[in-house]
Design a protein that fits this description.
Blueprint: E1 2-5, E2 15-22, E3 25-33, H1 39-43, H2 50-54, H3 63-78, H4 84-110, H5 128-142, H6 164-192, E4 201-202, E5 205-206, H7 212-243, E6 256-259, E7 262-264, E8 270-272, E9 275-278, E10 281-284, E11 291-294, E12 305-306, H8 319-324, E13 333-336, H9 345-355, H10 359-372, H11 382-406, E14 424-432, E15 435-443, E16 449-455, H12 457-461, H13 473-478, H14 490-498, H15 503-506
Bound molecules: NI-FE active center (NFE).
């Protein structure tokens, strides 16, 4: 049986997935990104500082990460050191944005793969939001609408949580999550000036002055958010993980994980550790020019693999080749030292755990592992990815509160650049919500951008086959999956969503 999901809903952007199922097993999978924009082309010739604003327009979910990566690339090119407040305040903006994004992913985008929404019809309490929601779901279910399909009706049969008390708790938290995300967005806004697309992150730091009232407001919001993350989000993910324990064995991909540094500590170390692990052996450190992007199966004339900034431009194939060749996506296939890798929160947890450098993370992971009777290897799975986001979120909110308390009140975390640079290159590496993000900048005469390249988390994860015909990370997660009921193949969407794809980012 051949199955096409197009578009995959409840993700960011437009992804098409084709799978072939034989004897209840997925035997082939293709991930296709159907849209191309050309933001890197658009950057050429502009002043180098515009990269921080323009690359944020890649996406509304992770603009903070593009702002940071662009600023880091420029700071690398110009050899600029950030002062103490610059580091802390940047953490406080990007960390809050990450939290909003993790919450969005679990409740809004993924939880409906697990919750039985019909349980709301059994609700007899007096919570106004729950009652309104009950009315809405009832109306949608009885509408018989097929297209556009009603938001909350069930697409698959016999696959959701059967305990209605548990469903009602999840639905209640689903609704409360909007308020939690709003708090995170307000935290972003205090020092980012607006969300999305912050205006205060600049090469040299961050331009908002940390006044006492701003810091107090930030800390109060962060404390409220911590309450939700620890007591609701983490607990919900843990409960879903216990209920669907078989999903620690489903969606296993390649055993290769790549992470970049993120959230700097004042001693120069980072909260999560950069490196590459293969078969659960970790090597610290990253060599960005070991990245090669292949376009053998992408709609570009430049077949083969190229290192960042090696190509001046990419050219789309002619219409005839577009329609008749084996090429199937606009996404190139990045490889690290020749390996397909998975990036994202599970990679952060696995690599940081293996590095042994963050005792708090190892303690949390060990406790969960003994409670669920799993090991670090099981984080390479659908449920491992959800759990990783919750673990990372708990750690981030604690760090944000700590960082806010360490800020020197009234001291600007920004150093003004003196004059435009000429003929320098730089690399900015960070972790976006969906994983390792790299920006490469080549600055020509008088600060004009000669070349720019972004290697983005979802590009790693939804990558097509490479020059050796080796499938990408998500394709590998799908291939080999056993489908319990071919008429209700929910395993496929659960696997796809566990990687939190953003196609707006993947092909930019
Ligand atoms: Ni458009 Fe992005 C991806 C993330 S890159 S959401 O992929 O996270 O900063």
């Amino acid at each position: 049986m051949k199955l096409t999901i197009d578009p995959v809903t409840r993700i960011e952007g437009h992804l098409k997935v084709n799978v072939e199922i034989k004897n209840s097993k997925i035997v082939s999978a293709k991930c296709s990104a159907d849209m191309y924009r050309g933001l890197e082309k658009a950057l050429k010739g502009y002043d180098y500082l515009t990269a921080i604003q323009i690359t944020q327009r890649t996406c509304g979910c992770c603009p903070y990460a593009h702002a940071e990566a662009a600023a880091l690339a420029i700071e690398d090119a110009l050899q600029i050191e950030l002062n103490k407040n610059a580091k802390l305040l940047r953490n406080m903006v990007i960390g809050a944005y990450k939290l909003k994004d993790y919450l969005l992913h679990f409740y809004t985008l993924s939880s409906l793969d697990f919750i039985n929404i019909n349980s709301i019809l059994e609700y007899n309490g007096n919570d106004i939001k729950m009652l309104e929601f009950k009315k809405y779901v009832l109306k949608e279910i009885s509408s018989k609408k097929v297209f556009p399909s009603p938001l909350f009706t069930q697409k698959y049969k016999n696959v959701y949580i059967e305990n209605s008390k548990f469903n009602l708790t999840l639905i209640k938290h689903y609704l409360e999550n909007f308020e939690a995300m709003k708090k995170a967005a307000e935290m972003v806004k205090i020092f980012g000036a607006k969300a999305p697309h912050m205006t205060t992150i600049e090469a040299g730091g961050i331009t908002t002055k940390p006044t006492a009232d701003r810091l107090i407001k930030y800390i109060n919001l962060a404390k409220d958010l911590k309450e939700f993350i620890y007591n609701k989000y983490f607990e919900d993910v843990l409960r879903v993980a216990k209920y669907f324990k078989e999903y620690f064995k489903i969606g296993k991909g390649v055993n290769n994980f790549l992470t970049f540094n993120t959230l700097q500590n004042l001693d120069g170390s980072y909260m999560f550790v950069a490196g590459f692990s293969k078969d659960f052996r970790f090597e610290e450190g990253v060599e960005p020019y070991e990245i090669v992007e292949y376009s053998n199966y992408a709609y570009y004339k430049e077949n083969g693999g190229y290192k960042p900034l090696e190509l001046d431009d990419l050219h789309p194939v002619d219409l005839e080749e577009f329609e008749n060749s084996e090429k199937y996506t606009w996404s190139r296939a990045p490889r690290y030292k020749g390996h397909v890798v998975e990036v994202g929160p599970a990679a952060i947890v696995i690599n940081t755990y293996l590095s042994g450098k963050n005792h708090k993370l190892n303690k949390i992971v060990n406790k969960i592992n003994s409670e669920l009777d799993i090991s670090i290897k099981d984080y390479n799975s659908v449920m491992g990815r959800h759990l990783s986001r919750a673990i990372v979120s708990m750690m981030i909110i604690d760090k944000l509160i700590e960082d806010a308390l360490n800020v020197d009140e009234g001291v600007l975390g920004f150093t003004q650049l003196k004059h435009p640079p000429s003929n320098v290159k730089g690399v900015g590496l960070t972790e976006a919500t969906r994983g390792a993000l790299a920006h490469f900048i080549d600055i020509g005469e008088n600060g004009y951008i000669r070349n720019y390249e972004m290697v983005v988390p979802t590009t790693w994860n939804i990558s097509p086959k490479d020059n050796r015909d080796i499938p990408g990370a998500l394709e590998s997660m799908l291939i080999g999956t056993h489908i319990k009921d071919e008429n209700n193949p929910i395993e496929i969407s659960r696997i796809i969503r566990s990687t939190d794809p953003c196609l707006a980012c993947a092909v930019h």
